[in-house]
Automatic annotation (TrEMBL):
Domain of life: Bacteria
Annotated residues for binding of substrate: 110, 258-259
Main location group: cytoplasm
Lineage: Bacteria, Pseudomonadati, Pseudomonadota, Gammaproteobacteria, Thiotrichales
Main function: Catalyzes the reduction of the glycolytic intermediate dihydroxyacetone phosphate (DHAP) to sn-glycerol 3-phosphate (G3P), the key precursor for phospholipid synthesis.
Binding-site list for sn-glycerol 3-phosphate: 110, 139, 141, 194, 247, 257-259
Gene transcribed to yield this protein: gpsA
Protein name: Glycerol-3-phosphate dehydrogenase [NAD(P)+]
Compartment list: Cytoplasm
Glycerol-3-phosphate dehydrogenase NAD-dependent N-terminal domain location: 8-162
Residues holding NADPH: 15-16, 36, 110, 143, 258, 282, 284
Similarity comment: family membership: Belongs to the NAD-dependent glycerol-3-phosphate dehydrogenase family.
Length: 336
């Protein structure tokens, strides 16, 4: 008689958390999907789908939405966190007292901690210690396409090699292909900075600046990503892979990207608050812009696109003025 798989706990019932829970369930895993809003969870239980974020994509039988967190944390070894970056420490605080000694934590959250500017693995180590296996899942991936079963490749980064490979085994199937990396710093910075560049690309498209401008933004945005990421300890090669260039191209060129849509709305004259409200989900690039621009100034790293996005978000200039500020910079060699 086959032994049933140990349950996996996914924390966060937004579009991405739901899509990842569905991947695991399609692979035969028993999955508990926790959401913070009891009414939302009850609706998922009743309809067997996430009508708010992924309508018409029905759950596999082994996926069970749950409302209560504490009783389930103490029963699982594998925990996948998919909450916004501003809620990451809060969710760690909730689960920490009930974690099993052998529990391992992976997250699919992109961004830095607000105000501290810490990468999320640093937040996890501060709260949980440095002996618990940690990993991050990132890469060019829209939740809707994953839920549809369209081919997707991502990176799972961890300094615990065996843990990364076991996560690959849990997620890998005919449409979802994870690769492994040991560069947990680089993949997180790639995932955070690409959101800022997507805001910039959305602004450029909203101003009608054309394909040439978009290509230039992506290319120079990659240069800023590499410059910043390597200065903070990431590996240059990481930014040429899925977590860097791959995610950057995806999020700068497709309207499924919230960050790109947010930038587009700003270019049309909407306020930061109105653009966020209209999108209806967290726009991670906003907080990432504040933190990355602050760290860039602190470390004296040249990040002109990031800085101009920051100026727009702070209402210090209009999107058009930000573009002019970039174009009026002193000419210099492309490769330094």
């Amino acid at each position: 008689m086959a032994v049933p798989p140990e349950p996996i706990l996914v924390l966060g019932a937004g579009s991405w958390g739901t899509a990842l829970a569905m991947v695991l369930a399609h692979n035969g895993q028993s999955v508990w999907l926790w959401g913070r809003n009891p009414d939302h969870v009850q609706a998922m239980i009743s309809s067997r789908q996430n009508t708010r974020f992924l309508p018409n994509h029905y759950f596999p039988e082994t996926l069970q939405p749950i409302t209560h967190l504490t009783p389930y944390v103490s029963q699982v070894k594998e925990i996948i966190i998919v909450v916004p970056s501003h809620a990451f420490r809060e969710i760690l605080n909730k689960i920490a007292p009930n974690l099993l000694p052998q529990a391992r934590i992976c997250w699919a959250t992109k961004g830095l901690e607000n105000q501290s500017g810490l990468l999320l693995h640093q937040v996890a180590e501060h709260r949980l210690g440095n002996r618990r296996p940690l990993a991050v899942l990132v890469g060019p991936s829209f939740a809707k396409e994953v839920a549809m079963g369209l081919p997707t490749a991502v990176t799972i980064a961890s300094q615990w090699t065996q843990y990364a490979q076991e996560l690959v085994n849990l997620f890998h199937n005919h449409y979802f292909r994870p690769y492994t990396s040991s560069d947990i710093i680089g993949v997180q910075l790639g995932g955070a900075i690409k959101n800022i560049m997507a805001i910039a690309a959305g602004i450029a498209d909203g101003l009608g600046l054309g394909a040439n401008t978009r290509a230039a933004l992506i290319t120079r945005g990659l240069a800023e990503m590499v410059r910043f990421g390597t200065a903070l300890g990431g590996q240059r090669e990481t930014f040429m892979g899925l977590a860097g260039l791959g995610d950057l191209v995806l999020t700068c060129t497709d309207n499924q990207s919230r960050n790109r849509r947010f930038g587009y709305a700003l270019a049309l004259g909407n306020s930061v608050q109105q653009a966020q409200q209209d999108i209806g989900q967290v726009v991670e690039g906003i907080s990432a812009t504040y933190e990355i621009s602050r760290l860039a100034r602190q470390w004296e790293i040249d990040m002109p696109i990031v800085e101009q996005v920051n100026q727009v978000l702070q209402n210090n200039c209009t999107p058009s003025q930000a573009v002019q500020a970039l174009l009026s910079r002193e000419p210099k060699p492309e490769i330094l």
